[in-house]
Amino acid sequence: MSLKDMHSLVNFFTRIDVNQNGEITYGKVSKAGSYVDLQAEMDTLIVLNTCPHPLNPSNKYQPKPLKISVWEAGIAPADNPAFHLRDENKRGFTNTINYTKSLY
Question: Could you give the CA distance from residue 37 to residue 68 in angstroms, rounded to a whole number?
């Protein structure tokens, strides 16, 4: 992998606010029990990081427990709600299905 394979970070559980002047401030943190479902149609590398957010005003590092579940569900069929959500999604699913078929 190289730098072109890297994506910007995504923070799912802390809100960062930007006001009308463009100033960035540390927002609210998600409640205990909050979760995110990710769906990947191809092999995907996900790197988890529990470092404190740079804008977090707290001087004390207090990592919280994290539960991760991973399962293989196969290629999402056309009845998957995400398939029909946006035209971009449909193209992405179709391209992935076609790419996957070309591997076999």
Answer: 10
At 56, list the tokens: 């977090």
Per-residue pLDDT reduced to its tens digit, 19-31: 999 999 888 888 8
Per-domain residue ranges of the chain: 3-73
In order, the DSSP letters of 46-73 are -----PPPTT---SS-------------
Q: In whole angstroms, give the CA distance from residue 93 to residue 26.
A: 35
